[in-house]
Amino acid sequence: VWAVEVAPVCRDDLVRLPRPLSSPQGRVGPLALVSRIGHSIHLLDPTTGGAAEITNDVYWRQPFTPLATKHHLSTFIVLDSDLDQSPWQQPQEAPLPGGKIGANAKGGNAKG
Asked: Residue 89 belongs to what domain range?
């Protein structure tokens, strides 16, 4: 008989990291997307593009659960993108919800 405890996070989940795992000096902020699950959890910061890997030992010392799963996501299509002159050169985007293509919908502005 085997007893196994599995981390309750999946690929594409949005997670809020505990304070010790996210720091200003780290590569990932307090909100991150799970990009891959394996022997460790791979995270991606959606605002900076930074990546981090959380080992199983670190995860079980500071566990975290998802804020949103991929079922909560919406599809968007980027209609226009302008390069911002910030130090990180992040684009200025005009997204349109995927279900609104061809409809009389207004796109929004999102800073990438």
From this structure: 74-111
